[in-house]
Automatic annotation (TrEMBL):
Segments crossing the lipid bilayer: none
Any Pfam family hit: PhyH
This protein's record includes keyword Oxidoreductase: yes
Gene3D superfamilies attached to this UniProt entry: q2cbj1_9rhob like domain
Domain of life: Bacteria
Keyword Oxidoreductase among record annotations: yes
Keywords of this entry: Dioxygenase, Oxidoreductase
Protein name: Phytanoyl-CoA dioxygenase family protein
Cited InterPro entries: Phytyl_CoA_dOase-like
Length: 287
């Protein structure tokens, strides 16, 4: 059985972590203002090319459903799509299994940007892998992240989507509805399969705004950040290139559990009203 790296609340792989460039990672005032106005910010460099390659090597092992550490995932879907013709590999918990995916949580460019956008110290919530193989990679339907996270409060969350490949419209990059973070929370309409389902829950005014999504085209190693209410999704990968990504979900220190039930599969419950902290929700900011 593989060791659970979530017990370590600091980088564990010098050969990965030491490759971060020593630089000033602060977002500009203009970038922060853009995020608050539009609900997203794209084109933030997080990883160097050599780190991307190291993560790709770790990821390749995860595609084998019998890999060492299989029991440590919160969720694991070789294909979350309803059909084998549209594959969406989706898994939560890579930070517990792969040293690189663990250490990326402490990436200086991610942590500094998250502190600025959340206006405070940052804790880890959970990670995700979203991978679309070439030629038949499936969709991620339009949704708001917080609709899946209402078991926590207050809503002081942030999502960082990091490309492990160049991502563009053709291979299914993330697309955003600017300003949708100012909408109320929408009902869940499904994560994989139906790009049209969201129409059923939008007002006429929201539907009009929805007509103009913006694709966040990225180079590998670059990231987008988005607000927990920002409506986003991604279309199918119809190219001969893969579209692989890792996602870090974080929240401002002080967010509490809003449920006595299990928050993540395999994680002991945190009593309703108690602060989210401990082994599975490490503080990423420097104290």
């Amino acid at each position: 059985m593989a060791a659970d790296i979530s017990l370590q609340h600091a980088p564990v792989s010098p050969e990965f972590f030491n490759k971060f460039v020593n630089d000033d990672f602060r977002l500009t005032d203009e970038q922060v203002a853009f995020f608050h106005e539009n609900g997203y910010l794209s084109g933030v460099k997080i990883l160097e090319d050599e780190q991307v390659e190291m993560l790709r090597e770790e990821l390749e092992k995860f595609f084998d459903s019998n890999h060492d550490g299989r029991d440590l995932w919160y969720e694991y879907h070789t294909n979350e799509s309803a059909t084998p013709d549209t594959v969406l590999f989706h898994a939560l918990g890579a930070w517990r299994v792969g040293p690189g995916f663990h250490d990326i949580l402490w990436a200086p460019a991610f942590v500094k940007a998250a502190e600025q956008l959340l206006d405070g110290q940052v804790r880890f919530w959970h990670d995700q892998l979203f991978c679309k193989p070439s030629n038949h990679g499936g969709v991620v339907a339009w949704h708001q992240d917080y609709s899946y996270w209402t078991r926590t409060k207050p809503m002081a969350h942030l999502t960082c989507w990091i490309g492990l490949d160049d991502a563009d419209r053709d291979n299914g990059c993330v697309q955003y509805v600017p300003g949708s973070h100012k909408w109320d929370l929408l009902p869940i309409t499904g994560l994989a399969g139906d790009m049209d389902a969201i129409q059923e829950v939008l007002t006429p005014e929201q539907w009009e705004q929805f007509q103009h999504p913006v694709p966040a085209e990225l180079k590998k190693g670059e990231a987008t950040f988005h607000h927990p209410l920002t409506v986003h999704g991604s279309f199918a990968n119809c190219t001969d290139r893969p579209r692989r990504a890792t996602v870090i979900n974080a929240f401002r220190d002080g967010v509490c559990s809003d449920s006595d039930d299990v928050l993540l599969v395999g994680v002991p419950p945190i009593a309703k009203g108690a602060k989210m902290e401990g082994q599975f929700f490490p503080l990423l900011s420097k104290t």
